[in-house]
Design goal:
This protein is an alpha/beta fold. Helix content is about 40%, strand content about 20%. The strands form four sheets. Strands 6-5-4-7-11 form a five-stranded mixed beta sheet. Mean pLDDT is about 90; it is low at about 390-399. Bound molecules: zinc ion. Zinc ion (ZN) binds near residues 236, 248, 250, 253 and 256. Zinc ion binds next to loops.
Length: about 400
């Protein structure tokens, strides 16, 4: 019970941006003044909370505001994307205090990749100058499907050689830190909810644009996880019956027809890109995809290829938005910054006109406010959530 009350108090302090007095804490939490005094003393001694200014209100006793102490705890977030690995360090207030990015090794060697992650985490901790003893854990966001109970990544379509990898345990052993695993799109949606400001409220789909596509869902302010935490698999929605053959055996799946590999191949066939690009090499494909996006800025055939992509994605977003009566779509992921110029007014107008509840409320189209780090920030927030959350489902993940 003591721990529960402590969490309630920490959460109330976090929610009060300008700080909160002990008297106000008692009002907000319903706890006795004595309990507040004891618990806040403990939190101050533990370095999680600091005392701010004393303010005098009329003739009453002066009040001291309490704030989170940013250096009280740190969380590391790792986002494993098939092409790029992103690392962030967050302080207790959720602010990003350090980041790093590297190419995801293409070798079929998950153990080696995990060892590399542990090294990079150690470098990040050293370079940001944070106290290693105050790093409470690592959150890792990975492509699905994942087995959350066992902490295993199961054969993600775009990560060759990752059959059944016990990622949570392996990274825990390599770093000596507690590790929490979450699906990439869910981590991104939680990050928007946590740190996205006004656009993190209400009901929205986070649409992930990377080597694969995926959807994270927040409905009525709650992150949706599904019965096995694998919500958001949209890769096999058919968006073009004449499209490319997917590994599932059908044609024109959203995931396959959004792949940089397919778009680069279209660019090669149109004579826009050199014919000798090795389509089996993700790094080379990624570079060629960047060239295609640059060419598309000038218009012509390259632009037509990308606008067709936008139309296919619009169809999927339309269906999700109408199914769930959403407030907005938030686009993000490693390819968002390159694709953003093509997701302009045409897409917004299309989605608004196809949103069936439009006479009642608007459907917004926005980009992530958290940049390329959104998945990693979400993974790290998951760790911080454990410090603040009294939600039993979050506590369960900790077990
Ligand atoms: Zn498919």
């Amino acid at each position: 019970m003591g721990d529960f009350n402590q969490t309630v108090i920490l959460d109330a302090i976090r929610r009060s941006e300008a700080g909160i007095s002990r008297t106000a804490l008692a009002q907000v939490t319903g706890l006795s003044g004595q309990a507040i005094t004891n618990i806040t003393r403990r939190l101050i001694d533990a370095g999680l909370v600091s005392e701010g200014e004393r303010t005098v209100n009329g003739r009453g006793k002066p009040r001291t505001t309490l704030n989170l102490e940013p250096s009280g705890q740190y969380a590391i977030g790792v986002h494993l994307d098939p092409v790029v690995l992103t690392y962030v360090a967050l302080d207790l207030t959720g602010r990003t205090i350090g980041r790093a990015q590297q190419w995801t090794p293409t070798v079929r060697d998950p153990q080696g990749v995990v060892a590399g992650m542990a090294e990079e985490i150690a470098v990040l901790v050293r370079e940001t100058g944070i106290d290693r003893a105050r790093v409470v854990g690592v959150g890792i966001a990975a492509p699905g499907p994942i087995d959350i109970e066992r902490g295993i990544v199961i054969d993600p379509p775009n990560l060759a050689g990752w059959g059944q990898v016990p990622l949570r345990e392996a990274l825990g052993e390599a770093t000596g830190l507690p590790v929490l695993l979450d699906k990439d799109v869910t981590a991104a949606a939680s990050a928007e909810r946590w740190a996205g400001g006004a656009q993190g409220g209400g009901s929205f789909v986070f649409f992930y644009l990377g080597t694969g596509v995926g959807a994270g869902l927040v409905i009525g302010g709650q992150v949706m996880r599904g019965s096995s935490q694998n919500v958001g698999e949209i890769g096999h929605i058919t968006v073009d019956p004449d499209g490319p053959l997917c590994f599932c055996g059908r044609r024109g799946c959203l995931g396959e027809s959004s792949q940089p590999r397919y778009l680069v191949q279209r660019g090669i066939l149109a004579g826009l890109l050199p014919a000798d690009i090795d389509l089996a090499d993700p790094t080379r494909v990624e570079e060629a995809f960047g060239v295609l996006c640059e060419l598309a800025a000038a218009g012509g055939e390259a632009r037509a290829i990308l606008l067709e992509l936008v139309d296919r994605i619009a169809k999927a977003v339309e269906d999700i938005a109408n199914l769930l009566d959403l407030d907005r779509v938030i686009f993000g992921g490693p390819h968002w910054s390159r694709l953003r110029p093509f997701f302009g007014e045409r897409l917004k107008a299309t989605l608004r006109s196809r949103f069936l509840a439009r006479s009642i409320h608007q459907f917004e189209v926005v980009g992530t406010s958290l940049g390329e780090d959104v998945g990693a920030v979400g993974a790290a927030s998951l760790v911080l959530d454990h410090t603040f959350s009294t939600n039993p489902s979050v506590l369960l993940l900790n077990a």
